[in-house]
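ok trying this again, last paste got cut off
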Amino acid sequence: MFFDSEFTALTQSARLLSLALVDENGRTFYAECMEAKTYTLDPWLQQHVLPHMQWLTQPDNQATFRHDALSTAQQSTWIFDTEPHIAAALTEWLSVYDDIEMWADCPAYDWVLFCQLFGGSLHLPAPLTYIVHDFSTLLTLQQIDPLTPRQQLLPAHSMMADAGQPHNALYDAQLLKACFTHWQTHGRFVSQCTVKKP
């Protein structure tokens, strides 16, 4: 399972704006937090994150929203609601899995905020555990600079290499999935951006 989120700051007072999960078959969950409408966002977030939101960009929108799309290819759930309702919808969405290996990219803040949705890491819904795997650490172990833009880890002809918009949780989770799948399939990344030696 591949996870990403957008949030208000790199501080202890950070609050969740949106989150996304994508499984290995492309089944997706995307949510934006209605509480975020009351937050004061810094100029960087207003310029680089907020424009890529589905509902938070609409200042007058106060209605909750949930859409479940079912098809033979995949299932997706999109939701704009309060954090407790998002947690309930996500618990339902996760209930179809017997086991989950969670991956995120530099998840120090993302994972804490995710766990807070459920009252902390010891209260995560089954089958989640408190363990999250860090993609940036995987890059370091592969001798690749973890600051490398993720699109550069994929072949130029990859659909994810130049599609979508960074700083959107769903796109970033899908990009993480594409990078991880490429590494799993080929045993390497495309990037030659190696870690600097001391």
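PB: full thing came through this time. The CA atoms of residues 151 and 161 lie 5 Å apart.
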